[in-house]
Design a protein that fits this description.
The chain is built from seven helices and seven strands; from the N terminus they run βαβαβββαααββαα. The chain is an alpha+beta fold.
Length: 209
């Protein structure tokens, strides 16, 4: 059966969002997971030809409240459901010359207290990190420009939330969730199928008996 002549297949492009204004935002942790990535030294060829990998932690925080009045459209002004990511290779607790590392600060922001000696000695478990999903903290964000000239939203601190804001609805979570290529293709295929079903139904309804 040929394609309905009235159906149009439009070009779709990903949305580009401006950087967030410098400030403190209340967020919900939508997702946290680990990724195995090549180390910096390995990428720079400093490992004698042997590729080295490390376990990175990837965090997806979703903003619950805020507006950017400098933007022209209402869609860009509204910051709720905007995502801010944090990715780092220090998947361990560490205190250096600059103080506690990100894993320390994130854990303590969600717990609302400092880690005790027992927790520090035993380390942070994956079950504890997973328990943070759906919970709220404050993040301090300011734009930062990388050595390659790209400006991104840089999280410089993590703080305990003093009160709860309205959590993300299931619909908002789905909107904020980053889909894999396979999921995007499946979604586009379902959308095409639904459109075709609607066209078939319309054609049947227009048949004169």
């Amino acid at each position: 059966m040929p394609i309905n002549q009235e159906q149009t297949f439009e070009k779709k492009e990903g949305k580009t969002y401006p950087n967030l204004p410098k400030g403190i935002y209340q967020v919900e942790l939508l997702d946290v997971h680990t990724e195995e990535n090549e180390t910096y030294d390995s990428k720079m060829g400093k490992t004698e030809g042997v590729k080295k990998y490390q376990t990175d932690l990837s965090w997806q925080f979703t903003i619950l409240q805020g507006r950017d009045e400098s933007q022209a459209s209402e869609e860009m002004k509204e910051l709720r459901v905007r995502n801010v990511w944090e990715n780092f290779g220090q998947a361990f607790l560490y205190i250096g010359k600059n103080g506690k590392n990100n894993l320390y600060r994130i854990a303590e922001a969600f717990l609302g207290r400092e880690l005790d000696q027992k927790e520090e000695a035993e380390g942070v478990t994956s079950s504890l990190l997973n328990s943070f999903i759906g919970k709220q903290i404050l993040i301090s964000v300011e734009p930062k420009t990388s050595t390659k000239g790209k400006t991104f939203d840089n999280i410089i601190d993590y703080l305990k939330a003093q009160s709860e804001l309205n959590p993300l609805s299931d619909e908002e979570k789905e909107k904020a969730r980053v889909k894999t290529d396979d999921e995007k293709q499946a979604e586009e295929a379902k959308e095409t199928f639904d459109n075709n079903e609607a066209n078939v139904e319309e054609a049947v309804n227009n048949i004169q008996f």
